[in-house]
Write a structure and sequence with these properties.
Elements (H helix, E strand, L loop, with lengths): L11 H16 L3 H7 L3 E6 L5 H12 L3 E6 L7 E2 L12 E2 H11 L2 E5 L7 H5 L2 H9 L4 E3 L7 H14 L7 E6 L9 H13 L2 E5 L8 H13 L4 E4 L2 H5 L4 E5 L10 H10 L15 E3 L12 H4 L6 H28 L1
Parallel strand pairs: 1-2, 1-5, 3-4, 5-6, 7-8, 7-10, 8-9, 10-11
Helix pairs in contact: 1-7, 1-13, 2-13, 3-13, 7-8, 7-13, 8-9
Length: about 350
């Protein structure tokens, strides 16, 4: 049984197949793949709020004859514990060892959204919550954003660049850091870098000193770029990075050394206010991307977000199409495994 928890578990060729299938879903040409979702049940478990993720997954299931169940941990369901060997005398009333197999008995697919704790960088990099779900699941598990990755967003980014830039291979894709008002996880930039590296784009990562992504992501991105004949670069010169870019992807994330230090993190953001993206960062044909939600005039200026070169709404729509492709693929893989 195969999960969609991490891009590291999929090859660039396999990810490209998902993108090709997403294009077929979007154009109405995915006949056999559509039929796989009819009558299927997706159970979604949210540890954190959502707008696009919940709606796009529900829409994909309902559009193709399936059904989606949404559970909010600590809201309409018990708080869940994922760590082993604990005396559970705290707020969590149920352990994933029991909860996950039960949910798998009710549906055909299980999807999980859980953010980084932003207290221990090494713990977040290990993705303990979603990995626990994968360990105890008897149905395919989908990552709806975890502490370390947001692979469905990464696929939507790939599809968006392909559509808007007339292809991906050889295009110049820039991920630039931007300031925030609070520390945020690295899941989105991790997946954006990995996805477009797998796609064969020239990838540049721009951020102030101290905001480096983890070595595992950087090593994999370099390897995938190299295998695709593309370049990978990291710089602290935002203006130079954006010059001549086909796509500029804006995202905020926290400084690893300031995990658990909110006051120091806010001060660091304030020191780099000039990294807010404006129309001046965009070339005549550069597309502007962001995963949303976005804080206007903190992360990106109004004038840039309201510019015709901004494609954030198209990018958000593409979440539905790539997720339909992931859902259909995992159902098909699970059915094939059951027959063998």
């Amino acid at each position: 049984m195969r999960h969609f928890i991490s891009m590291f578990d999929w090859t660039p060729a396999e990810l490209a197949e998902l993108i090709a299938l997403a294009r077929r879903f979007k154009s109405g040409r995915a006949t056999a793949e559509v039929e796989r979702l009819a009558g299927r049940i997706l159970t979604m478990v949210f540890f954190n709020p959502s707008l696009r993720t919940r709606t796009s997954f529900e829409a994909a299931m309902l559009r193709y004859g399936g059904h989606a169940i949404t559970l909010s941990v600590g809201g309409d369901t018990w708080q869940l514990e994922h760590r082993d060997g604990l005396v559970m005398d705290g707020p969590a009333a149920e352990h994933v060892r029991e909860a996950v197999p039960v949910l798998c008995r009710y549906g055909d697919l299980l999807a999980v959204r859980t953010f980084a704790g932003l207290k221990d960088a090494a713990e977040d990099a290990a993705d303990p919550v979603i990995r626990a779900f994968g360990r105890f699941a008897t149905q395919p598990v989908i990552n709806m954003e975890s502490a370390f990755e947001h692979p469905c967003q990464g696929l939507a980014d790939w599809l968006t660049v392909e559509e808007k830039c007339g292809g991906v291979r050889g295009k110049r894709f820039v991920v630039t850091w931007a300031p925030q008002v609070k520390g945020l996880p690295m899941a989105v930039p991790n997946s954006a870098v990995l996805s477009l590296a797998a796609a064969g784009a020239h990838v540049t990562l721009a951020h102030p000193p101290g905001y480096e992504l983890g070595p595992r992501v950087l090593e994999q991105a370099r390897a995938w770029c190299r295998a695709g004949g593309a370049a990978f670069a990291v710089t602290d010169d935002q203006q130079a990075a954006c010059r001549g870019a086909d796509a500029v992807y804006v995202k905020s994330w926290g400084r690893p050394a300031l995990y658990g230090k909110p006051d120091a993190q806010r001060e660091s953001f304030a020191q780099h206010r000039d990294w807010m993206v404006t129309p001046g960062h965009l070339g005549p044909k550069t597309i502007l991307m962001h995963c949303l939600p976005v804080r206007r005039n903190v992360v990106i200026a109004d004038a840039a977000l309201d510019d015709p070169r901004c494609v954030v709404v198209d990018q958000a729509e593409n979440r539905m199409w790539v997720q339909a492709a992931v859902l259909s693929t995992l159902v098909g893989d699970a059915a094939g495994a059951a027959r063998s």
